[in-house]
Specification:
single chain, about 250 residues, mainly alpha, about 5% strand, Conjugal transfer/entry exclusion protein
């Protein structure tokens, strides 16, 4: 008499023996980066609105050749410091994102999405946006006719150079307008960056799910080949394969 012997324990252990990339963790990772960028964007827009209110104040004062109060000037400096700090936070998020894309590329070197973009393409686009965010500060300094903005190597020097232009009513108005330009330009790059990460989140997470499902199906197919018939018709009973060959005996 023959009956099918299923090795449940073996099959169970083999089903989970291969490595799969968890799409949930991957999605959470990218979602966190999107949330960080959203928070940065909200703060940038708030600072932009504050700067715009200072523009109106400065325009009125300029008519009478009056300067902003010391409190308003300090507020302008604080806003400028905050914007540049938020830019740096964005750069850090971009670096983390490109690192994540590199790891994804190692796991899925053949990946190409519906737009024919690879993980390396997303990294390249993120790095381009990173450069554009740096250019926003450069352009704002150029608008103030600051000579050779590239020579300022750190944030403090950039802030001091911008604030040095705000020594009279005209300079203060120009400095405030430069801050509005700086915040608006940064917000624009953030919008593009959020879209980029959102696209990769949607497409790559779906790809991971499909890949994992395919691996599980393939493993289940392999496990089905581990089923053997057991011959118990005589004292030298044992396991035989599908072709009737004796694989092992029970005595």
């Amino acid at each position: 008499m023959k009956f099918i012997l299923i090795f449940f324990i073996i099959i169970s252990s083999l089903t989970y023996s291969f490595t799969v990339h968890d799409p949930i963790n991957y999605a959470v990772n990218l979602e966190n980066k999107l949330n960080i960028l959203e928070q940065i964007d909200n703060q940038i827009r708030g600072l932009e609105n504050q700067a715009k209110s200072l523009v109106n104040q400065a325009k009125q004062l300029e008519k009478f050749d009056l300067s902003l109060s010391m409190g308003s000037i300090q507020n302008l400096r604080n806003n400028l410091q905050r914007i540049i700090a938020l830019q740096n936070s964005t750069q850090s998020t971009i670096n983390n994102y490109t690192d994540l894309q590199s790891k994804f590329m190692e796991l899925y070197p053949d990946y190409t999405d519906d737009s024919y973009l690879k993980a390396s393409d997303y990294s390249r686009k993120a790095e381009e946006l990173s450069k554009e965010i740096n250019d926003v500060t450069y352009d704002a300094m150029k608008s103030l006719e600051i000579i050779s903005p590239e020579k300022y190597n750190n944030d403090t020097e950039k802030i001091d150079a911008i604030m040095d232009t705000a020594k009279d009513a005209v300079g203060q108005l120009q400095a405030i307008q430069a801050v509005v330009q700086l915040s608006a330009g940064t917000s624009q790059q953030l919008m593009e960056l959020k879209y980029l990460i959102g696209q990769s989140l949607k497409l790559q997470s779906t790809y991971i799910v499909n890949e994992n499902q395919e691996k599980i199906i393939n493993q289940q197919n392999e496990n089905s080949n581990l089923r053997h018939d057991m011959d118990t018709s005589n004292e030298s009973s044992g396991i035989i394969d599908d072709e009737g060959n004796l694989l092992g005996q029970f005595f």
